[in-house]
């Protein structure tokens, strides 16, 4: 019996041992299989990550030093950048033309006008605008005058005498215009050019500033020139060169040539006058209609020759006054000393509501003016004057 029991125990022990070994083998096989699966997943993930990296490298644009510099560039105060140029031109106009003086860094077109025009009129008619001409992120400074061409039955246009840009270190001039080599603004970064070299030689065309803000690129460049047989021929190119051999001769009559020159559509610039007034003054008849909202003022001594002007601002100004001027003294150099009396007052002249005022002009000596206080608390007195050339209004500051 004992032997039978011992045999049974041994038999059970052997069976359990084999069973445990079998289970261990199964567990080992499952572990190996799991590890194999894990390794396979890791390999697949590794391949997938590699493909993602390669794809990212393909689509990610290269970041250059230039891009980094552009992103890190601080904001530039372009009003301050161009202030020395603006002040230099303004001071030159205020001082008037001196035939014994050599003018450096002043646009030829300004000096040309200053030789003949009234300096006070120029302070009002000539001005500047800071505008990104070629959309490169760096605004340019344009100097010019908005001209009235209505008496010729043509569009008003802006005559540009100078253009300046900034390279990050200093300002430089890229445009120089004068009467016989003139630029006009066409809008959208385009300029119209007209030049004259004599009775037979005329040039006109359209150009725009390149992205380096250095040179003009020509869309069209037309010119006329004498031929060897004494006739006048007409040419076209896009290089901007006055060279018949490098241009196409076009089959046009003189009349057709000038019709083409007059086909361009001109635009005006939003110029800030060198005179510096924050208040603009224009003939009311030119701008006021039934839809215009304004504050009205009529003088007590309204007469048949009372005319109306519109005072307006881009930014609100304080203590606006319309004054009547009286001549106290005129010195040997023609400088007038004025006294004034207040005729109308507003605590604030706003950009939303201009003032339409009746005023009287009694003679060649100005007798109308206005005053206001600027944002820095400084008071200004401006004289309203008329051009002896065309009757247009202009203002100048009395100091």
Please provide a brief summary of the model.
With about 400 residues, the chain is of the alpha+beta class. About 25% of the residues lie in helices and about 35% in strands.
| Major sheet summary line | 11 strands, antiparallel
Shape: globular
Q: Give helix % range.
A: 25-40%
Taken in chain order, the helices and strands follow as HHHHHEEEEEEEEEEHEEEEEEEEEE
- Poorly predicted tracts of residues: 1-38, 51-61, 63-72
Give the DSSP E fraction (strand runs of 2 or more residues): 35-45%
Our count of domains comes out at: 2
End-to-end Cα distance: 140 Å
Return the average pLDDT rounded to an integer: 84
Number of separate helices: 6
Based on secondary structure, the structural category is alpha+beta
Keywords:
single chain; 399 residues; alpha+beta; Immunoglobulin-like; 2 domains; eleven-stranded antiparallel beta sheet; five-stranded antiparallel beta sheet; 6 helices; 20 strands; 35% strand; globular; disordered N terminus
């Amino acid at each position: 019996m004992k032997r039978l029991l011992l045999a049974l125990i041994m038999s059970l022990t052997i069976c359990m041992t084999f069973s445990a070994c079998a289970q261990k083998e199964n567990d080992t096989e499952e572990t190996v299989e799991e590890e194999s699966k894990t390794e396979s997943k890791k390999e697949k993930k590794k391949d997938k990550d590699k493909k993602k990296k390669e794809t990212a490298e393909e689509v990610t644009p290269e970041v250059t030093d230039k891009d980094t510099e552009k992103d890190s560039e601080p904001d530039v105060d372009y009003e301050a950048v161009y202030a020395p140029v603006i002040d230099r031109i303004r001071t030159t106009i205020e001082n008037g033309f001196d035939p014994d003086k050599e003018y450096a860094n002043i646009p030829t077109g300004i000096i040309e006008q200053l030789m003949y025009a009234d300096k006070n009129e120029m302070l009002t008619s000539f001005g500047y605008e800071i505008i990104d001409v070629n959309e490169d992120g760096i605004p340019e400074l344009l100097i010019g005058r908005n001209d009235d061409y209505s008496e010729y039955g043509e569009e008003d246009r802006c005559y540009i005498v100078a253009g300046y840009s900034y390279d990050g270190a200093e300002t430089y001039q890229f445009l120089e215009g004068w009467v016989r080599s003139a630029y006009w603004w066409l809008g959208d970064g385009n300029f119209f050019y007209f030049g004259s070299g004599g009775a037979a030689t005329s040039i006109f065309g359209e150009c725009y500033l390149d992205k380096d803000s250095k040179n003009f690129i020509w869309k069209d460049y037309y010119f006329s020139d004498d031929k060897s047989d004494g006739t006048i021929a007409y040419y076209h190119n896009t290089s901007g060169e006055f060279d018949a051999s490098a241009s196409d001769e076009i089959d046009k009559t003189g009349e057709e040539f000038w019709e083409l020159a007059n086909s361009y559509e001109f635009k005006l610039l939003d110029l800030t006058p060198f005179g510096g007034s924050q208040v603009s003054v224009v003939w009311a008849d030119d701008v006021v209609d039934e839809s215009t909202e304004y504050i009205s003022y009529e003088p007590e001594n309204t007469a048949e020759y009372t005319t109306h002007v519109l005072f307006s601002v881009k930014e609100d100004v304080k203590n606006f006054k319309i004054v009547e001027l009286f001549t106290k003294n005129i010195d040997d150099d023609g400088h007038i000393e004025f006294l004034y009396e207040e005729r109308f007052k507003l605590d604030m002249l706003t950009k939303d509501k201009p003032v339409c005022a009746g005023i009287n002009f009694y003679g060649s000596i100005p007798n109308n003016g206005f005053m206001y206080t600027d944002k820095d608390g400084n008071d200004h007195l401006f004289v309203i004057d008329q051009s002896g050339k065309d009757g247009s209004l202009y203002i100048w500051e009395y100091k």
